[in-house]
Amino acid sequence: MARPLKHSAPRRPPLSAEEIQSRVLHRDGLILVIDKPAGLAVHAGPSRAPNLEECFEALRYGLPRPPALAHRLDADTSGVLVLGRHPKALSKLGRLFAGRGAEKIYWAVVHGSPPADEGLFDWRLLKVNTKSGWSVHVSGDGQNASTRYRIMGRGSGVSWLELKPQTGRTHQIRVHCAHAGCPVLGDRLYGKAEAGLQLHLHSRAIVLPLSRTRPPIEVEASPPPHMLEALQACGYVSPVP
Prior knowledge:
Elements: H1 17-21, E1 24-27, E2 31-36, E3 68-69, E4 78-84, H2 87-98, E5 103-111, E6 118-122, E7 125-130, E8 133-138, E9 146-154, E10 158-165, H3 172-179, E11 201-208, E12 217-220, H4 225-233
Parallel strand pairs: 4-11
Antiparallel strand pairs: 1-2, 2-4, 3-4, 5-10, 5-11, 6-9, 7-8, 9-10, 11-12
């Protein structure tokens, strides 16, 4: 007699419904904007590790299907992440991001500082595959990539940067900062190996001009706890609750 098939129990999402709902920064009929925690991939990779998409069922808010990612953030990057609530919204967001109509603002704490108080990192980037994995390098054979930066404050051997990517290449901010001689704190791939230090890169805000007749949607996320000490050393003052 054939043995009955065993069905494994569905995996519990990495964040509870209450936890993911508490991270919703903006909600309307088209989109959700959430505050992504650092250290959690946004979607399933080859390793099938826990990921943010597993939490989206709790974000339906009465719609027949969960929302979906409109763009991506690295697993170790925290902050503003946009979701489309239905196919029409995702199509509109796709055109907006592809046409560079959305303004993304990041904060980073870096070793050292860039060569000027503000400027443009404008180096082509190439994704390179090796036996041990892949990474991104500055290369004349790569794709156009540019990032505007501004120094917001300085500490002892570190700087707080505001960064506005003008293109959307993989690992763009991290590689540009490293190539400029100011790698992001906690960047194990492009910077210094620092035991126990998380990546100090945060998706601070986004501006989405979704309507011709209404003002753009502007959403920002507070910096995560692991960045506060370094930011405060550079002059950041936490808002009073």
